[in-house]
Specification:
Layout lengths: L5 E7 L4 E6 L4 E4 L4 H9 L3 H9 L5 E4 L12
Antiparallel strand pairs: 1-2, 2-3, 3-4
Helix pairs in contact: 1-2
Length: about 80
């Protein structure tokens, strides 16, 4: 998953949460993301472009600090 802005991501279908790790090291958890939106993000050729157009501003989010969950299990 080469991306200039997104290092890794993971989707928890049971919680409908999309966890995104940016190349800056900042981590965000997007809430109430439908499975179709996560699948489209996973399939997108340009993760950054897709994120900016289809996820950013469309879903409630929380920024995770360094003490929150680690980035194990995220797709690279």
């Amino acid at each position: 998953m080469p991306s200039a802005v997104i290092r890794a991501f993971d989707y928890a279908a049971d919680a409908r949460e999309l966890h995104v790790l940016f190349t800056t090291g900042r981590r965000y958890l997007f809430h109430d993301v439908p499975p179709e939106a996560a699948a489209a993000f996973r399939a997108a050729f340009s993760k950054g472009r897709h994120f900016n157009k289809r996820i950013r501003g469309h879903y409630r989010f929380s920024e995770l600090g360094p003490e929150d969950e680690g980035s194990e299990g995220l797709e690279a």
